[in-house]
Specification:
Its EC number is 4.2.1.47. It catalyses: GDP-alpha-D-mannose = GDP-4-dehydro-alpha-D-rhamnose + H2O. Keywords: Lyase. By secondary structure, the chain is of the alpha/beta class. The chain folds into two domains: about 5-180 and about 235-260, NAD(P)-binding Rossmann-like Domain (Rossmann fold, 3-Layer(aba) Sandwich), CATH 3.40.50; about 190-230 and about 265-300 and about 320-335, UDP-galactose 4-epimerase, domain 1 (Alpha-Beta Complex). It is built from ten helices and 14 strands. It has a seven-stranded parallel β-sheet, with helices on both faces. A three-stranded mixed β-sheet has the order 8-9-14, covered by helices on one side. Strands 7-11 form a two-stranded parallel sheet. α2 (about 60-70) packs parallel to α4 and α4 (about 90-115) packs parallel to α5. The longest helix has 22 residues, at about 90-115.
Amino acid sequence: MKKRAFITGITGQDGSYLTEFLLEKGYEVAGLVRRNAGHDFGNINHLKDEVTLYYGDLQSPESIALALYEFKPDEIYNLAAQSSPLASFNDKLGTMMITGIGAVQVFDRARDIVPKAKIYQASTSEMFGAPPVVPQNEQTPFSPANPYAAAKLYAHQMASISRRDKNKPQFISCGILFNHESYRRGINFVTRKISVAVACIKNKKKHNIPLNEIGQPIVQSGKLKLGYLGSKRDWGYSKDYVEAMWMMLQADNPDDFVVATNEVHTVEDFCREAFEVVGLDYKDYIETDPAFMPPVETGPLQGDYSKIEKKLGWRPKITFKELVRIMVHADLAKFS
């Protein structure tokens, strides 16, 4: 009998790669999607006939309950969130309702309807804030520096409480994932903004240039505007990281795991590598703009993945340089 997996946030970057991964493993896959007038299923448009889709969102516990009751999953992957740290400053309550309380809605509905289901909760390195030690591991103290991270920390702690419940303990593993990217990443995230800008500049694209988060074309007068170029992050490949999510739910016991590359690079490093792919000097095309700088800075973020390597055998496959090249080449084709 096939295993069944239910994914919230199935249309996003991670949700789409996880769906492909699980289908290849022989799973039946279902997901929760929000209604939209265009019936656009985002990154799973090519998979929509292979999965079962339920309309709803994390602010609607009834929609979660209905999906779980009908599909009866063996595994639940909670990937849905308001996932932009910068945007979370402008919508603090919405971020908490979706990213924090929404996760608890998933835990509670699962406990009542499919109590034996194993749950993966998407936690984040943003919870570390400006950490006192580098690199960070599962014992590093949390100190969120933005509303998104605070909401994720609430969900993370509630997962731990549900796991330790003496009456109805749940199998909930949390992946503390450091930044993970791909050409399926939303264009308002800095890495994708860079790869798209490189493609538009190299291809001399003049029209239909994607807009940034403040409604302006990403490339204006041949320039890309970014925030603080010195921000330090640990960037990996999303396709590698969804395998780590699955591995956590194959373990005998639930736990928390850092998923990272053990390397740190700046936004400037990413710009340099991306423009080098097309033979250009990033310094000729980058401008900094305070509009893209968060009120509170996070980082440096660098993960130590030794625990998941030791216990589950996971390690990243794609290097930083390979990741940048993959993203740039994909966007060169898309924005020609």
